[in-house]
Specification:
Largest sheet: none
CATH architecture of the largest domain: Orthogonal Bundle
Number of strands: 0
CATH topology of the largest domain: Tetracycline Repressor, domain 2
Number of helices: 9
CATH class of the largest domain: Mainly Alpha
Helix content: over 70%
Length: 203
């Protein structure tokens, strides 16, 4: 990795930790400069302003989440041909990966920016909305494959079902932090897994 890329990465790492801990408004450029040990001109070489930093943070966060989903559900597809069984295995793998985080999930930048939407311009709000729609499309595709083979026990809107994946993940993060119980997130994923199993499996 080139030095410039390494420095940019360190700034983003420090910014993400600070934003998740106390919010975007309470995170200052001066603080990030002190934490990373760079000069002010060094910061502005990489990011024109805080808005530019926020965009980079959001885009990196979305790419990282997409990589996690690609990894776990891609592995599940290799293990199981049936789309329902593949999805159930994928949820199990996702729960295992998130339960391995030593202090629980650090938080979600998407949710954080939604809670503080007034601090962000339309470009960042659009990135946020785009991320949610990307995840809806991903999981809708999976559920459409499942429904082509397995008829659900109840009529359900496929987009709403796809959105449940995101709401379970985001809700699990909030609950685990509120209760200070890191295991809650993985447990919620497994509860959702049970729901999907009941919805589609025939006894």
């Amino acid at each position: 990795m080139r030095k410039g890329e390494e420095t940019r990465g360190r700034i983003l790492d420090a910014a993400e930790e600070a934003v998740l801990a106390k919010g975007f408004g309470a995170t200052s450029i001066e603080e990030l400069i002190a934490v990373t040990g760079i000069t002010k001109s060094g910061f502005f070489y990489h990011f024109r302003d805080k808005t530019e930093l926020a965009k980079a943070l959001m885009q990196r966060y979305i790419e990282d989440d997409e990589q996690v989903f690609d990894d776990v559900f891609g592995r599940a597809r290799e293990l199981m041909e049936d789309p329902l069984q593949s999805f159930l295995v994928g949820l199990k793998l996702l729960a295992e990966r998130l339960s391995d985080l030593p202090n629980g999930h650090p938080g979600c930048l998407i949710a954080t920016s939604c809670y503080n939407e007034q601090l962000f311009d339309k470009a960042i709000q659009d990135i946020n909305r785009g991320a949610v729609l990307i995840w809806r499309k991903r999981f809708r595709g999976m559920f459409e494959e499942i429904m082509a083979v397995h008829e659900p026990r109840e009529q359900i809107d496929v987009d709403q079902l796809a959105d449940m994946v995101s709401t379970v993940l985001e809700g699990g993060i909030v609950m685990s932090k509120a209760l200070k119980e890191p295991a809650v997130l993985a447990e919620q994923i497994l509860v959702f897994r049970g729901f999907v199993k009941l919805l589609f499996e025939r006894r």
